[in-house]
Design goal:
Strand content: 15-25%
Helix content: 40-55%
Radius of gyration: 18 Å
Strand order of the largest sheet: 1-5-2-4-3
Shape: globular
Largest sheet: 5 strands, mixed
Length: 184
Amino acid sequence: KDIYDNIHLDGKFIFYRLPEAGSKEYYAMSILNGILSEGDSSRFYKELEYKSQLVNECDSSLFGFEKASVFIINALALKGKSLDEVEMKIDNILMEIVEGKIDDDEITKIKNRIETIHNSRIQSIVSLADRFSYLKTIFNNCELINLEILDYLAITKNDIVNAAKKYLNSNQRVVLNYYPKKQR
């Protein structure tokens, strides 16, 4: 769907529905989210920003909920760059994942980052309270504070590939294209 609004750069927003937070596929997609968009070595940064110079920024987010989750990819195209080309590049990156083209180093890097974040969360009273609140609300189980990290660390390359194959299909998504309003 094309939307015209008071914006300066063209934007593409792609939404996928995923299973609920806490499922094995959710954890696999969480690691994939990191591979795609965390840091300068992420796939979106390397391919869309650095090599192709198509976008001002491109990232992904995963929001886990009780009954389902949402995986969102958003990209802001550089002036004069085509959103169709941006979408094609994103789809190519996702296809590489579906084909199993993931390095063990990419997975290890994200797992290490997740473990670091987990350990820092349990050091702060405010972060700990926030995490307990989330675990109680979504899972009704605060004991997961000590166990959830194991679910992340148990994810394999095959888990990531299988989740991508199952959920990241072009016929199972909503795509919004945002364009600046035409000036009269």
